[in-house]
């Protein structure tokens, strides 16, 4: 069984910090290493078979360092869901913000999401497991992701780039489409041209399923 060790080095420097937020850059690096290692461990083995000792071995950190930032495997898993959501947000947001209009922003957003999934395939397993391990984190991931889509849509509508009545249902429809396209062309098919996938999906958003004359 994994047991906490006495903190040493950078772990000791963070001791006495009740909310466990790293106070030093070294501590922040250690925390990122633990989260990156946890992503691999949970992604490969799943929550129940993963272990704290394996996470610290992958991270190249002392076991005691883990307990400087987390009290349990459940706690690092919860933090990991937030961390991966934030990584996805930080990857996609600058690209969509630079788009010339809202329709282009959705194409660029989907294309960048597909690229992110190919580089971080573990995200699907981790988010799927969160439904059963930490439902609040699972729901928060999707709600915050779709909230960003909705904000983009409403901003585009305000600029007159898309229809004026966009709202929650439209945002969830786009979010759902992106999730399944990510599964199909991010996880299952690495040979598909993600730019073309995004183009086809974007044409559907822009023009619907009406017959093209």
From TrEMBL:
GO MF annotations, alphabetized: DNA binding
Keyword Ribosomal protein listed: no
Residues in the DNA-binding region annotation: 51-70
Pfam family, one: TetR_N
All copies of domain HTH tetR-type, residue ranges: 28-88
Keywords in alphabetical order: DNA-binding
InterPro entries: Homeodomain-like_sf, HTH-type_Tx_Regulator, HTH_TetR, Tet_transcr_reg_TetR-rel_C_sf
Ranges for region Disordered: 1-25
Record PROSITE patterns: HTH_TETR_2
Keyword DNA-binding: yes
Protein's UniProt name: TetR family transcriptional regulator
Species in which this protein is naturally found: Sphingopyxis macrogoltabida (Sphingomonas macrogoltabidus)
């Amino acid at each position: 069984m994994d047991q906490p060790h006495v903190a040493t080095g950078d772990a000791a420097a963070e001791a006495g910090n009740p909310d466990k937020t790293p106070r030093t850059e070294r501590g922040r690096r250690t925390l990122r290493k633990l989260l990156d290692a946890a992503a691999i461990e949970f992604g490969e083995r799943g929550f129940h078979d993963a272990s704290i000792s394996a996470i610290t071995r992958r991270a190249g950190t002392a076991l005691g360092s883990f307990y400087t930032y987390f009290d349990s495997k459940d706690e690092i898993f919860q933090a990991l869901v937030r961390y991966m959501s934030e990584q996805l947000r930080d990857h996609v947001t600058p690209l969509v913000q630079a788009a010339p209009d809202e329709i282009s922003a959705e194409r660029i957003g989907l294309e960048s999401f597909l690229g992110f999934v190919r580089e971080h395939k573990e995200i699907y397993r981790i988010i799927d497991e969160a439904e059963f391990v930490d439902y609040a984190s699972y729901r928060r991931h999707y709600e915050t992701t779709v909230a960003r889509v909705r904000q983009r849509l409403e901003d585009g509508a305000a600029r007159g780039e898309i229809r004026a009545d966009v709202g929650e249902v439209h945002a969830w429809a786009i979010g759902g489409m992106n999730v399944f396209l990510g599964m199909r062309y991010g996880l299952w098919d690495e040979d598909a041209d993600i730019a073309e996938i995004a183009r086809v999906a974007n044409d559907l958003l822009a023009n619907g399923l009406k017959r093209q004359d």
